Amino acid sequence: MSYADAAGTIVAQILALPEFVRVQALFPYAGLDEAMLLDIIGAAGDLAEGVIEPFNAQADQVGCRLEQGRVRLAPGHHDAWQAFVAGGWNTIEGAPQWGGAGLPMLVHSACEELLNRASPAFGMLPTPMRCATKVIERYADPALCAEWAPRLVDGSWAATICISEPDAGSDVPRLRTAAVPHADGTWRITGEKIWISFGDHDLTPRIAHMVLSRTPEGAHGPAGLSLFLVPSDIAGQRNAVIVRRIEEKLGLHGSPTCALGFEAATGHLIGTPGRGLAQLFTMIIGMRLSVGSQGAGLSGAAASLAWRYAAERRQGGRADAPPVTIDQHGDVQRMLLGLAARAEVTRGLVLTASAVADLQAQEDDEAARTEAGLLLAWLLPITKNFAAEAASLCANDAIQVLGGAGYTREWPAERYLRDARVLAIYEGTSGMQALDLALRRVLGDEGRAYRAFLAKARGDAGRLGNATLGALLDMLEQAASSLDKPTATVVAYPFLQLASLATTGWIAARLAALSGSPVHDHLAALGRHWLLLAQAQALAEAALTSHGQALVAAFDDVDRGYLG
Question: What rounded mean pLDDT belongs to the chain?
Answer without folding.
Answer: 95
